[in-house]
Every structure is written in C-alpha cells, then in structure tokens.
Amino acid sequence: MIRTEGLCYQYPDGARLTFPDADVPQGAVLLLSGPSGCGKSTWLALVAALVAPAAGSVTVAGQTLNALKYVAADAWRARAIGLLPQKLHLSAALNVYQNLAMAQWASGRPEDGARIHAALQALAVDDLADRKPGQLSGGQAQRVALARAVLLQPQVILADEPTASLDDETAAQAVGLLLDTARAQGATLVIATHDARVATLIPSDATGRVGFQSLRLLRGAL
To answer: Which candidate, 146, 209, 152, places its Cα nearest to that of 179?
Structure first.
C-alpha cells in the first residue's frame, strides 16, 4: 500500500512542490498523470525513499519512510520497491544475467541463478541471458529491466514514463506487461506518465476487487 499525507518537497533552488494526498491499497494500480515538469518523477522518488520530504508523511508497504535514514532506506528499497526508470540503466559492461545478479548483490542477498532465470523466463527473455544490453532491441531491454525490477518480488512497482517514445502497439504491450507482472506478484503498481494513451490501456477491472486509481499532478502545485 501507499499512503501520503500533506506531502511537500523542497528543491535546492527553493521551488516547493505540494502533492495531493494518496491512499492506494496493496495490489491496486495507480496512474500518476500530468504534464512534464509537474513533479511525477519527484513523487516516485519520495515513495521510493530516494529523497526526503520537506513536510508530510509517506507510508509504503507498512513502512513510514520519514523514519528511514541512509543505509536503512537503501536496504528497505531493495526489499520493497521495484523501480523501472525511464532510462533503464542496464550496465553495458554486463550481460543480461549479470545485470540481474547485480540487483541481488546490491540487496545484500547471495546470487540465485534459478530465481534470475525464472524472472527472465516469466518475461520471455531467458534466451537473452548471455547478451549485452547493446545487443537488445528497445522492447527486449525494457523486459530485462522489468525482470530486474521485480526479481526480488517487491511489494510496489514504480514505472516512470514506460511508454515514452513507443508506438501504439508497443505502448499497449508495455502497459500490459506491467499489469500482468504486478498481478502475478500481488504488487501495487504506479505508472507515472504524461502519455494520454496509458489511461485507455488500463481496464477498470485491472486488479479485480482492489481497483484502479488516478492521481493527477498539476504545474500549479509548484
């Protein structure tokens, strides 16, 4: 679950963002929408404990993030959050398998080859395990990045502009992939986007009884 109350963020240049409150149950889908520059990526960073709020509270997967500092925040994020950034950040020097193994190492867990191959197989890219990111198509790289994000079975998946620069067919595949993966793991899914197509790609019954919510951010909140 994700719950925010009175959430504000202060940028180093003095600009201040104030966000609407959110209450998203576990297993739900949240569409975080709004124009570029309205704070969608900042909201994701706050929910992932990558940055600290200037005011307000954030509770994610039962953890109040305001109480987490530095190393504790890193350890919690590795366990609870699957992050799919707009720039996929796959290491060019490592092959696909090694990119996923690095996620296990970063979380302090031993390498588990069986789990890595299971995650890749679930997203139909297990046959690419020995390839470097530069040898992948855009769609293949996105699937690998999602496999890495959900490898440790996080309770929350955060996807930042997952349909950016994609044609209609590929965008539909990307959203469907996120929905199917979140449903299979019982994870809460947040898709942050300014792409109006995404709302039409999420069925109202996407998560069964849990439901679908939308939170729109506006530049006026700055």
So the answer is: 146
Per-residue pLDDT tens digits for 181-222: 899 889 999 999 999 999 999 886 665 556 788 898 875 443
Q: Cα Rg for the chain, rounded, in angstroms?
A: 17
- The first and second tokens of residue 12, run together, are 């180093």
Q: For residue 14, what pLDDT is reported?
A: 82
| 191 strand-pairing partners | 31, 159
Q: In the structure encoding, which two tokens stand for residue 135, read together?
A: 């040898």
pTM as predicted: 0.89
Q: Are 169 and 201 in contact (CB under 8 A)?
A: no
Q: pLDDT class for 10, splitting at 50, 70, 90?
A: very high
- Using alpha carbons, select from 80, 82, 51, 55 the residue that is nearest to residue 190: 82
pLDDT tens digits for range 143-168: 999 999 999 899 999 999 998 878 89
What does the alpha-carbon distance between residue 119 and residue 147 come to, in Å, rounded to a whole number? Answer: 5
Is residue 207 within 8 Å of 28, Cβ to Cβ?
yes
**CB burial class (10 A; 0-12, 13-18, 19+) of residue 194?**
middle
Q: Which residues contact 41 (CB under 8 A, 6 or more apart)?
A: 86, 160, 192
